[in-house]
Amino acid sequence: MKTKFTRRNVLSKVGGALFGVLTFSAARTSKAVVQKFFVSSQAPKGYDPTKHRWQMAFDIDKCIGCGHCVDACKTENQVPKASTYFRTWIERYIIKKPQPGSDRLRGETVVDSPNGGSGGFPPSMVPREEILKSFFVPKLCNVCEHSPCVQACPVGATFDSPDGVVLVDPNYCVGCGFCIQACPYGCRFMSPVTHTAEKCTLCYHRITRGLKPACVEICPTEARIFGDLKNLTPDDPILKFIQNNKVQTLKPNLGTEPRVLYAGMDKEVR
Amino acid sequence: MSLKMPPQIVRLVLLTITIVVVYLVARSFLTPSSFGQYAWYRGDALEEIASRQPVFAGKKACDECHSEILIKMAKFEHKTISCETCHGVSKAHGDDPDVKLAKFTDNQCVRCHLSEPAKPKWMKQIEPKKHYVGQRCTECHLPHQPNEVP
Questions:
Q1: Sheet of strand A247-248: strand arrangement
Q2: How many C-beta atoms surround the C-beta of residue B105 within 10 A?
Q3: Chain A residues closer than 8 Å to B28 by CB
Q4: A135 located within any domain
Q5: Which terminal residue of chain B, N or C, has fewer Cβ atoms less than 10 Å from its own Cβ?
Q6: Closest approach of chain B CAs to the CA of A42, in angstroms?
Q7: For position A171, which CATH number holds?
Q8: Do A121 and A168 belong together in one domain?
């Protein structure tokens, strides 16, 4: 058997292949269009990501370290209960008194976060009389303007959405873990269930339905403030927060420009 | 004048064209249709992430039936607390009022009001071992109106 490479033969085969490819892509596009209109999705209808800009802020002077936010986040987002997986967590900063006779203003800083603060904090190992001051710092994804995680992702699975949330596309993530290494705030983890990177989504499924994120909803002291910068009301909590507080961000020296704001933060907080 | 290219060049050109065409065809097949809708990512992912169902119902949902409690609460220091902070996930109860909520215990009070140096000074804190041992919190304090005595 010998294949005949005549001009007519080759041209007709190439033409057929080209036609097939074009028909296939046309069919694929039309299928996607039809699906968009006829297949009902669970996603909230009428939500336009370009008309919102979400903003998260923390008031450290209000956080009591009850850990309700950590538990609420785990419940809402089905985060594994193990003590190594967190979308949000609380850190306890303890600044000790300086050694007697030293010319220092403050002593050693001890930071702990037993089980991320889930279920409340147990008494610290540092005795009360040695503590100069102590406070809680809630943490979650800092939603950076220049996110190192987005830059590190080789497949375009993590991205900065038009409404200002850094998200992970679980169907597109290959689980390489570069973003977990890239995040200077330690806000990402590899899910043991899906084996893809996971992180705080600011409860994207809630905010698109007009609800607050689970941690903000559940916080008993309003230490977590959340708002939409494109739809501000005159007495919006986020507006009041920025007017009444001196705000700063975590690790500003890295140039990631986090959007999450903190008020009442001490210089020890990293 | 002869325009005929040497055969090895023709083959190289043909091979290059084939590789480019194969690459373009493969890319059009492998790239999801919504990739690049907003930027260098799959635009459909936004909708997929948003399609997860909320677990916590939110204070507004409680307000639909229990507004009188929320109006009372608004005068007291516990006004900032969401219902589900103490009563637990209440979406099932909201959909079907016959479903009872989790039982409220003293642990709920102690979790926030336990004395701890890291807590801010304005927070009212107690040592459970020294503060009326053996009595339940609700014997003296009303959770919805913390400043009133029953």
A1: A224-228, A54-59, A261-263, A247-248
A2: 13
A3: 21, 25
A4: yes
A5: N
A6: 5
A7: 3.30.70.20
A8: no
